[in-house]
Each structure stands twice: as structure tokens, then as C-alpha cells.
Design a protein that fits this description.
Length: about 260
């Protein structure tokens, strides 16, 4: 089965990834499950004596609450890490994997919530039996949660370098932005309104724009910038100024947003 994956985004940018196979995903899941099991066991032993000292009724209620907390832990662990660390749980980070949208974009909260709610079904009848079956009959090795959320798991550049060795010839992905001598839109740009998904699209565009023909580059820059402009309620004057240079606008959004998060 071919491990290479080529995705054409809605903006007609070609992205290349290496698909994560069953083996690497299994070991990543093993690490994550081991960590979660360890946390659950520690919580159980810490609270066992406390629960036994309570009355039967109250102890049963707290036991039920504990079950809900354990479910939330197992579900929320993956969701929190995937949304805040670019699609990587601790296990995936250790194995050099990450989750992305099937269009090549970073995943969002709703995508992660769906794929991890369906994880319960993937786990049946024991340790990802249903998920493994789905991966074996799917050309992109996607479990049921991936199919439901429209996501897939790929290898990161770090893993690709390790697998290919020192003679890797593929150039790393670099966002090339000229030094910002002046900021034209900084007084108006609100970086806190820019989502991680939008930032990812901007990053891809700025890194690959040099490979695009000029008319396509101009059209794509406008397509990416317009929703952000509308979100920030730009005046007609600012909109007209941005129409002259979308690249400048997107560069400033990227610089201000990444500066805000560092």
C-alpha cells in the first residue's frame, strides 16, 4: 500500500504527506492508553479510602461521578492535546505523528470532538478491534473516528527525516516573510480573532506562494484574506488598501498572530 499521500486543497495548493501506518499508530495509542490508565489507577487508589468512609448512598453517587470523570478524562485527553498541539497527543508526538483534516488543514475543536467520541466504537470489542478492521480495508488507514470526522493521521517532517536518514533531499517547509519595516494594518488587525485553522492556511500560503503563477497567487491571497477582513469589520478605506496588496496583509496577520502566541 502506497504510503505517500497528495492532497489538493480547495485553494488548489498541492500538499504532500506520508501516511501513518498501523504499526506507528498502534504504538502511539499504546503510549496514550498507558498514560491514561496510569492516571486512572492513581486516582482510584487515592480516592478508594475516601469513598469507603462515606455512607453507602453518597459513596454510590460519588462512584458514578467518578465513572463520568474517567470517561471525560479518556475523551478530553485526546481532544485537548489535538486541538492545542497541532493534532498531536503525547503518544503521537513521541512517534512523530499528527492528525489533519482530509483537505490538509489543521483540525479544529469539532473535528477532534467527533473523532474522539467515535473512539469508543473503534475500541470495541477490545483495544481498537473495530478501528483496526476499518484501517485494514481503508486505503488511507483511517479508523471509524477519522472517517466520521473527515480526518487522517500523517507522519510529521521530523519523522520523515529520521526515516529517510541524513541524505534527505526534501527541503523543510519554511515561511518566508521579508523583514517588516512598517506595519500598514497593525492598528486594525485583531490577531486574537484569527483561528488556528486560519493561521495554518495562511502559513501554507506564505510558504508556497513563490511556486504559484502570479494570477493564481493574487486570487488565492484574496480568497484567504477576505473572510478575515470581514471578521475584523474593516472599514471601506482599509478594504480598498488591502485590495492593493493581500500578501502584505496576510504577512502582518501571520507575524502579529505568531508573536501573540510566543
Amino acid at each position: 500500500m502506497n504510503e505517500q499521500l497528495s492532497i489538493e486543497t480547495p485553494e488548489q495548493i498541492d500538499l504532500s504527506f506520508q501516511k501513518a501506518g498501523i504499526g506507528s499508530r498502534f504504538y502511539a495509542a499504546l503510549i496514550d492508553t498507558g498514560l491514561l490508565t496510569l492516571i486512572a489507577l492513581i486516582g482510584y487508589y487515592v480516592n478508594r479510602n475516601f469513598l469507603t468512609e462515606l455512607g453507602e448512598t453518597l459513596g454510590n453517587w460519588l462512584g458514578a461521578l467518578g465513572g463520568i470523570i474517567v470517561f471525560a478524562l479518556f475523551w478530553g485527553y485526546y481532544m485537548v492535546f489535538e486541538v492545542t498541539t497541532n493534532g498531536q497527543s503525547l503518544g503521537k508526538r513521541a512517534l512523530g505523528l499528527r492528525v489533519i483534516k482530509e483537505e490538509g488543514y489543521p483540525i479544529g475543536f469539532a473535528d477532534s470532538a467527533i473523532r474522539n467520541l467515535v473512539r469508543v466504537v473503534d475500541f470495541l470489542p477490545f483495544f481498537y478491534g473495530a478501528g483496526l478492521l476499518a484501517m485494514l480495508i481503508n486505503k488511507d488507514w483511517r479508523r471509524l473516528g477519522d472517517l466520521a470526522a473527515g480526518t487522517l493521521v500523517v507522519k510529521t517532517a521530523r519523522t520523515d527525516r529520521k526515516l529517510a536518514g541524513a541524505n534527505l533531499k526534501a527541503a523543510p517547509f519554511v515561511v518566508n516573510i521579508p523583514p517588516q519595516q512598517t506595519f500598514t494594518y497593525s492598528a486594525w488587525i485583531q490577531p486574537e480573532l484569527v483561528t488556528e485553522t486560519e493561521l495554518g492556511v495562511i502559513r501554507e500560503y506564505l510558504g508556497r506562494r513563490g511556486m504559484l503563477p502570479k494570477p493564481r497567487r493574487s486570487e488565492l491571497g484574496r480568497t484567504i484574506a477576505n473572510p478575515i477582513i470581514e471578521k475584523m469589520d474593516g472599514s471601506e478605506e482599509i478594504r480598498n488598501r488591502i485590495l492593493v496588496d493581500y500578501d502584505k496583509f496576510l504577512e502582518e496577520v501571520y507575524v502579529l498572530k505568531t508573536s501573540e502566541t510566543t
